[in-house]
Write a structure and sequence with these properties.
The protein is mainly α. It is built from four helices and no strands. The chain has helices at 2-21, 25-47, 69-99, 105-112.
Amino acid sequence: MLVLEASVFVTVLVGFLGTIVKKNLLMKIVTMDVMSTGIVALFVVTATHSGLVTPIARGGVFDAPYADPVPQAVILTAIVIGLSIQTLMLVAAMKLARDNPTLETPEIDQTYL
């Protein structure tokens, strides 16, 4: 389980560093999606620590450690919100692309500031 947690942490870190380092606006949007995917994976890994069994009562008693269903609902909500935010960012990038010949952030800053 330690390798899985480390790979999730590396995914979040790569997305975060890509957001900071990349100058192209579309690459920033992609790296933000990578970071969001890593955070969702972190929730999944955290939720499976208590168990992998679905919490269905058999005679009023749970036989095995079960997975908490609340993080699963949070994950679904996070995926939907992440998709809508990514779509909104891509629409904003399309509007910027109409006005500017480039999507490099330093050149956009010079144009609008």
